[in-house]
Amino acid sequence: MTRQLPQSMRANERLHAMVPGGAHTYAKGDDQYPENLAPVISHGRGAQVWDVDGNSYIEYGSGLRAVSLGHVHPRVSEAAHREIDRGANFARPSIVEERAAAKFLETVPTAEMVKFAKNGSDATTAAVKLARAATGRPLVAICRDHAFFSTDDWFIGTTPMSSGIPGEVTDLTVSFPYGDLPATEQVLREHEGRIACLILEASTQLEPPPGYLAGLRELADRYGCVLVFDEMITGFRWSEAGAQGLYGVTPDLSTFGKALGNGFAVSALAGRRELMELGGLRTGGERVFLLSTTHGAETHSLAAAIAVMETYTEEGIAARLHALGDRLAAGVREVAASAGVGEHVVVRGRASNLVFGTLDAEKKPSQDYRTLFLRQLVTGGILGPSFVVSSALSEEDIDRTVEVVSQACLVYRKALDADDPAPWLGGRPVKPVFRRRV
User: What does the similarity note say (predicted)?
Assistant: First the structure.
């Protein structure tokens, strides 16, 4: 099947002329898609999107995992529209702020206070600042096996895209491996009395080893540092109460975003009252300039968040995401095995947050084979940088996706047999987001 995207290609050119990178998020760049197959989206509804050329797609990983209920979810849209008509921003807090905070703390009962912002980076950086203020220590310890924490210098300076960030800033960030308590303790010992916090995702593609999160909790307490869970992805997708609610380990601070707004811009910093109040007005100590954003309390975004939390808790959305993901993972594994590529097209991660790996003949990750696979998906009507599901997907959508993957796997097998995926790439390969040069 051939898809023509002339209007999308022209729109991409116009975007590059006006917007650095051609998109406002690097992960949405056209370098992440096969050449001439980077659709520019016109609109979406449910689990389906349409590009400006009129092509429709079943979509995965919607909004970089943010749109977990599907596009234009009636309950969320109605809540946002209602507040837009009542005013978006005022000189004093709106009552919606109080309602949103109450609903969040009811939904995530392990948190004692919450403050809202517009993006995840601001929330995680605020957590780092609180940890440094509370401990008086300069160093941040990040989990080196997790892909992203913030656009701010303390994290981006540790990636290949560190240009413009002084080494003095980067030197204040150290790292530890996921799942390895002895190695983490070694880092704490090497920098004893200097590490303000340990920050990580409680779970990603791998489930935490038995006792690991509880062990981290104990290490943080013993070495006097703050334990921070980045729940941008795990929040709501793992359970309505986040990963901390699912695994039964309470961090000192945690950060939420993505699924919280179903596409609306809202994030949250939450945690222990003792720490959070350092950024408030009821502490007798030195004040911390925590989160103070002009648009952090937009009424329509907070109303959307309330509707999202209500929908998750009342309709069992987390369970539905897991059921859909289980169906998709089983189907993909079956057709990949049938085509003889079961060890090359692999599905990983929790059912509610699936990604796929594309491995070459040596079973090593391959951007060329990823390009081949993505090309087959897009031309088959699947827009899937990942296999992260939304609750708007139907079982029929999942089955259709598996059909397209089945055809893609047949092509994949041909490329492996030829020991050369190039004839099926259609142009340059897709590229990693974090790379030093264009």
Answer: Belongs to the class-III pyridoxal-phosphate-dependent aminotransferase family.
What pLDDT, in 10s, does the model give residues 368-406? 999 999 999 999 999 999 999 999 999 999 999 999 999
pLDDT at 1: 55
CATH of domain 6-71+317-424: 3.90.1150.10
What whole-number distance in Å separates Cα of residue 289 and Cα of residue 116? 14
Q: How open is the CA angle 19-25-29, to the nearest 5 degrees? A: 75
CATH number for 89-297: choose from 3.40.640.10, 3.50.50.60, 3.40.190.10, 3.40.50.2300.
Answer: 3.40.640.10
The residue ranges of every structural domain in the chain are: 6-71+317-424, 89-297
- Asked if 131 and 144 count as a contact pair (C-beta separation under 8 A), the reply is no
What the block records as the tokens of 49 is 């999107």
Report yes or no: 250 and 267 within 8 Å, Cβ to Cβ: no
| Model confidence, pTM | 0.95
Contacts of 281 (CB under 8 A, 6+ apart): none
Average of pLDDT values for 97-126?
97
H or E stretch at 197: strand 195-200
* Token pair for 75: 């309950």
**What pLDDT digit, counting tens, does each position of 68-77 carry?**
999 999 999 9
